Amino acid sequence: MGKKREGMQRLLVIINKLKGPQQYVPRKELENYVTHRMEERDGTPVDIRTLQRDFKDIEDLFGIRICFDKKQNGYYINEEDDLKKEQYERLLLNFDLLNALDKTSNLHTYVLAEHHRPNDSECLPALIKAIKFFHPVEFSYIYVREGDKVRKKKVLPYYLKEDQQRWYLLAYDNNILKTFNIDCIRNLKILYEETFKRNMNIDANNLFKDSYGIWNQTDIPVENIELSYSALDGSFLKSIPLHHSQEIITDNEMEFRIRLRLRITNDFVMALLSRSSSLTVIEPLHLRERIRKIYEEAIKRHL
């Protein structure tokens, strides 16, 4: 296990302990916890000097400040940083999984990881740092749909978003908010000598309200969609809705029918096809026709 990977794992273990139900964690308890967790991952024991360095790295990378309360004799995450803590909670969880389940760790003997795991973990800490300290970034970007053409980009990073086990960077490119697949980013460089003023009035929660997944194509209208499925497929769609706008119209032994309101993007159409064995598109008619043509082309290819 490389020192860089081990160091990142240790940061995540510390945060995992301090964001738990215990408000104050004594020094010795934190040392023992981190040492035990790192031994599970073939890591080395830690001491107070290592922890102090890690606290600084955690603040630099994630914006999370770890303090010590003398009266309570314990470490804690500063309450004023709770918003940042929640903002990065899912990100930290994914880091923990990605870094823990490597071939050198004995965890793989009882945890079954996906065959394909994202390759972007080294890119994410640098992007978090650039976002936190308002630094532009430069990188080479691979446009897969253009035959892997590579273009140089200089952007203002704003958000990181996860979708279907992939990470995406939301950044302003020539005053337009665009989405970049982190898998396609190469030669990332933080421009430390430059800073930008972040627009704090952006409602991040509404950016993708009307879209499926990561692609919010505003040139595509928001439409009412009605879909019919079998009762069996309906049981899955009740537990994992297609979209937050999903509204159940019919739910019985014969049919499960839902209504949605969102943009009909390629990603959404692909999602419909993934459970198409019982799908009937009721409306809009142009979506029904689009699905029909996809089926027809598939039949031609298999004749």
From TrEMBL:
Domain of life per record: Bacteria
InterPro entries: CBASS_pafABC_assoc_protein, WYL_dom
Ranges where the WYL domain occurs: 124-189
UniProt cross-references to PANTHER family, sorted A to Z: PTHR34580, SLL5097 PROTEIN
Protein name in the entry: WYL domain-containing protein
Native organism: Bacteroides vicugnae
